[in-house]
Each structure stands twice: as C-alpha cells, then as structure tokens.
C-alpha cells in the first residue's frame, strides 16, 4: 500500500463478509448486493493495498472457512478488520445509550445564587429520572462560568450577569427579585426609606468584579443617583447577608438569600427611591453552534 493511502471501509466490509460467510455469494446476500459487486470490491481492495488477500486456486494460504482461503496478508487484514468493526459496534452502542440516557454526562454551571437556590430541586429531579447519567454542577461567578462554556467544560449554565460574547448564546430564563437590606432594628420598623445623600454615606457590601450580583447592584444604585463613598468586597452573597445582619453596612442581594434573615428580624428592607424591590434577569448560557447533547435536552425539559 502506498504511503498516505487509507483503507476504504466499504470495501473492507465486503472483504470481511466474504470471510465470515465463507464465500462470495453468501456475502453478497448478507450485504444485499450482487456477487459480482462483491468480487469486484475485493479485487479493488487488493489493488488499493497492492496485496493479494484471497487465494484463487490451489495455494498455501491460511484457511479461514470452508469456502475461502486467505493469504497471510489477507488473514492479518481480517484480524485487524474484526477489531475495527468491533470498535464500530461499541461506538454505536455507546451513542445509543447516550441518546437513551442510559449513560453519559450532564455538566451544568451556575453562578452562586442560582446554584444555591434555584437549581438544586431541578438537578435532584433529573438525577431521579436518569440515574445512569453522571451529573456535575460547577459553581462560580458569571465571568468564570462564561469562560467554562467557551472552553467546553460545561454543557449549559445559568447566571445572573450580562454576557457579551459572540461565542455564547444567552437566553432569558427567569426574573429574580432583589432587595436592599440593612441590619434589623425593632425600634424603627421593618423597613425605611433614606435619602440618596444618606445612602451615599453608608458602607455598602458588594460582590467581587465579575459577579452578576455586583453588576446589577452597581447599575441599580447608579440609576438612582447613589454613589457610595465606601464599598467592601466580599465573595459570597451569604457572607454579605450575615455581615449586614451584624451591622457591617448595606447591600443589594437576591431576595432568596435574605428571606430567612428578614423573617427573623435580623435584616430589614430599605426602600431606594420609589422602589422597595428590584429584579434582575437570569440567563441560560450555551455555546453558539453546538448541538445540545441528549442530557441537556432532557434537563431543559424539566425547567
């Protein structure tokens, strides 16, 4: 065989059929073609390989079935071909199992709030319905999660922040309410409405750059003329909520994060302008142009 040439798998399949069905006529029947087509195919394969494969007459080739005698080269090629087509069958079985969700992976990414409050019941339902699929939930801020989508380390992701990347398709998923909170104070009621000037003098606890919560909080405060003189970065919404409850400052946080602390009086809401509550959009992220794996299709059906 000339260097750089490849084996024609269609012709190789004909050759294997001839060996396994012990003749050209039975091979033709199994492949639903004519005997002459099989004979021509085997001769063409021999020509491409520059190697005789089948003994056509008395010879000393290795016997492989009553009706066909192979040359040494033919026997070697047959053994390799059996391995090739066995791998083909395994590959097809694996794909069928994945399509049927009898195996495979679901790799979901989420920013911290989504992972902590919105996705757990959905992931649990998926695991109950498809116990043979391995599930991986990766948690990070919006920036980290977006990079994981682009790098192919995630199949789908859910984040709070805006994503401006042509490689990513961002689809609106749902709205999430936000609240401005401070430490609870039973002497001053469940909420208050300070002036923007007073809010400027407060210490605001904020997430790190790249966080969706940080992006939305900055935009909401700026839109209402609030420019805090002091900000303290903390890398977790829950940590911020508890720090605020201990009197460290104020914050804009998802309502799901602060609900229990408000209910117990450790936090109270602060009205900013005419608004008591804000909301932000949550987005589903997928890599542009990538077909959805069956596991992702099944997961999206649960949402």
Automatic annotation (TrEMBL):
Superkingdom as given in the UniProt entry: Bacteria
The HTH lysR-type domain, residue ranges: 7-71
InterPro entries reported for this sequence: LysR_HTH_N, LysR_subst-bd, WH-like_DNA-bd_sf, WH_DNA-bd_sf
Keywords: DNA-binding, Transcription, Transcription regulation
Family affiliation: Belongs to the LysR transcriptional regulatory family.
Xref: PANTHER family: HTH-TYPE TRANSCRIPTIONAL REGULATOR, HTH-TYPE TRANSCRIPTIONAL REGULATOR CYSL
Protein name: LysR family transcriptional regulator
Organism field: Lysobacter koreensis
């Amino acid at each position: 065989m000339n260097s750089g040439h490849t084996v024609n798998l269609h012709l190789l399949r004909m050759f294997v059929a001839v060996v396994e069905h012990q003749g050209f006529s039975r091979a033709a029947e199994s492949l639903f073609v004519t005997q002459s087509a099989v004979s021509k195919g085997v001769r063409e394969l021999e020509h491409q390989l520059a190697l005789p494969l089948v003994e056509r007459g008395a010879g000393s080739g290795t016997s492989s079935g009553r009706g066909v005698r192979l040359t040494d080269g033919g026997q070697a090629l047959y053994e390799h071909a059996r391995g090739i087509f066995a791998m083909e069958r395994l590959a097809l079985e694996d794909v069928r199992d994945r399509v049927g969700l009898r195996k495979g992976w679901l790799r979901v990414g989420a920013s911290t709030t989504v992972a902590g409050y919105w996705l757990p019941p959905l992931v649990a339902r998926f695991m109950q319905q498809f116990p043979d699929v391995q599930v991986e939930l990766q948690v990070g801020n919006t920036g980290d999660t977006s990079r994981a989508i682009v790098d192919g380390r995630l199949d789908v992701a859910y984040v709070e922040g805006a994503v401006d990347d042509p490689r990513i398709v961002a689809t609106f998923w749902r709205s999430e309410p936000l609240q401005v909170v401070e430490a609870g104070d039973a002497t001053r009621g469940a909420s208050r409405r300070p002036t923007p000037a007073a809010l400027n003098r407060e210490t605001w606890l904020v997430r790190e750059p790249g966080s969706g919560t940080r992006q939305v909080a900055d935009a909401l405060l700026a839109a209402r003329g609030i420019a805090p003189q002091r900000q303290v970065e903390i890398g977790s919404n829950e940590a911020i909520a508890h720090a605020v409850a201990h009197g460290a400052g104020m914050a804009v946080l998802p309502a799901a994060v602060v609900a229990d602390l408000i209910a117990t009086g450790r936090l109270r809401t602060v009205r900013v302008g005419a608004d008591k509550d804000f909301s932000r959009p949550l987005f589903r992220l997928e890599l542009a142009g990538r077909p959805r794996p069956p596991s992702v299709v099944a997961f999206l059906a649960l949402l």
